[in-house]
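User: My collaborator sent over this chain with a note saying "see what the structure looks like." That's all I know about it. Can you take a look?
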Amino acid sequence: MEQAFDYIHQLLNRQMALRAKIEASPVAGEISFRYANDYYQEEVRSMGLAMIRDGMSDEGEQLILDFTQEYYPDHLDDECLWIKKMIRYLSAVTDTLIDNLHAEGYKWLQGNVDMPNEHALYYPLHKLNADSLQSLELGLHTIVDLSKPEEFEDLHGWLYYRSEEKDACETSEV
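Assistant: Without extra context I'll predict from the sequence alone. Here is the result:
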């Protein structure tokens, strides 16, 4: 139980730091959160998946679902499906994976949370998109430039490939 408390404590600290960054940004008033495009939801997802990987399956899943129930109750089924897909399809970020991303022509990794975060989820990008640019405007460190080895030298986290369709269960946009 103490380990679960440690995860929750870390999550709350990260959310407070995120709130401060967002409120300090000149574009803060323009941000609208929605399911699968919510910075706070991504913090909860990352922490919940970390708990699941560390053997606290029920607690991690419940953490994610409690947030979804509170803010996006119409998407509980979508979130259950998202959790199952993320557990199945995540790949650890390794040197070999980075080499493969280079070979496939990817130029950036988009993280779902402000870094550093050992529980970040990434998806590869060929070019920056609107979510990436908004994160940069907010001053969040969510982009990893694959042309700069120093940026991924001590990179921790998990990678997944987004589907081409805009299915909320398969995409986790920041």
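A starting point for your reply to your collaborator: The two ends are 30 Å apart (CA to CA).
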